[in-house]
Amino acid sequence: MPIATVNPANGETLKTYEAMGEEEIERRLQLAEATFRTYRTTSFEERARLLNRAAEVLDEAQQDIARVMTTEMGKPVKQARAEAAKCAKAMRWYAAHAEALLADEEPSQADVEDSGGSRARVVYRPLGPVLAVMPWNFPLWQVIRFAAPALMAGNVGLLKHASNVPQTALFLEDLFHQAGYTQGCFQTLLVGSGAIDDILRDERVKAATLTGSEPAGRAVASTAGDMVKKTVLELGGSDPYLVMPSADIDRAAQVAVTARVQNNGQSCIAAKRFIVHTDVYDRFAERFVAGMKALKVGDPLEEDTEVGPLSSEQGRSDLEELVDDARRSGASVLCGGERPDGPGWYYPPTVVADVTREMRIHREETFGPVATLYRAADLDEAVLIANDSPFGLSSNVWTRDEAEVDRCVRDLEAGGVFVNGMTASHPAFPFGGVKRSGYGRELSGHGIREFCNITTVWHGA
């Protein structure tokens, strides 16, 4: 895949870039290693000052970088501005909380004495250069939610971004430089996916984090395992959205539309499988389909656009194949489902019902504005359908019954359960999944400790 900005609204190639050669990659690896030796000794106060300044720089650039993101991958420009604002918020959050999150921990004195010691503590030390392999769908947020905690922990970052968002990738490197970070603290590597293996095998790279597809995660995990290096993986998701009779059905249907089509439906944590109790199925379906039909699809640079194009022609083709396979196998398409005429990689908001386990759309992630609708006889069946997926990223549950909430928290196979609301990420809460959605956690204290050497310090009696 070429490293290029291709506008998904019209298919026009705007900029292309040459991949970095071996000499430039080597120079940057040397710089990362050398910079880490000094940056790791900086105080939390100094790291927080730099990260807060980076947030200010991002605020100042919000309008411009929002247009760049929209032009590179197609998200509505209002959502792009919101993404930039969210990144600045996360940087300020980690600047304010990192020192406390990584404070030394002291075991109880009774345990210390039982170990034969006089005192002990646990300290968190940085690992070194961390390779981040990041996707195009949230081209700022995915990077910042790694970079902010990693830099506050004293690590340095090497970014291999998706090849279709090179301008955003270069902006991120420049952002940290403008904020006053030493040049080697955060570097963008303009390379293709074929270069990842050699970079990860380099002894100077101490760990890796990847957000992306399951095949990409398997490749990085395999190499990292061979080299015995720490990894965090956030992979695909096919999140269930359960609606029970006690829920506010009108509100559940309204939020369901946003939960499905956020970021043009290209979000791992977008709700994708809508599992509705039979008693309220018809009412929910009517309102949900009406809401999907009412969305404005169009130029993502226009302020009132709600759904823009998919990021690539291949992405649209993959989504189209899932819908067509379901239709041929007996599913009902309640709205959408037909590729529009004209330029750009657009696909309409679509709702597919009467889905069976044999259909590809039941097993595979729909990465675009396509929802599947299921009828469940009771909560037992709803949970069964929800868990009948290889993925386990997050989940949504709509009910006013606390016993049903408790049951879902206990039994849903997911890294999150969001009750009477849609899944969202926030720097204070851990983010990640189970099953084929990956392992490890980003954000919160759990995320910042993922790339730390958790060190026991013990003193004899």
From TrEMBL:
It holds the Pfam family Aldedh. Keywords: NADP, Oxidoreductase. Residues 3-457 form the Aldehyde dehydrogenase domain. It comes from the Bacteria. One of its GO terms (molecular function) is succinate-semialdehyde dehydrogenase (NAD+) activity. The keyword Oxidoreductase applies. Gene3D superfamilies: Aldehyde Dehydrogenase, Chain A, domain 1, Aldehyde Dehydrogenase, Chain A, domain 2. Belongs to the aldehyde dehydrogenase family. PANTHER family: SUCCINATE SEMIALDEHYDE DEHYDROGENASE [NAD(P)+] SAD. This is Succinate-semialdehyde dehydrogenase. It comes from Streptomyces griseorubiginosus.
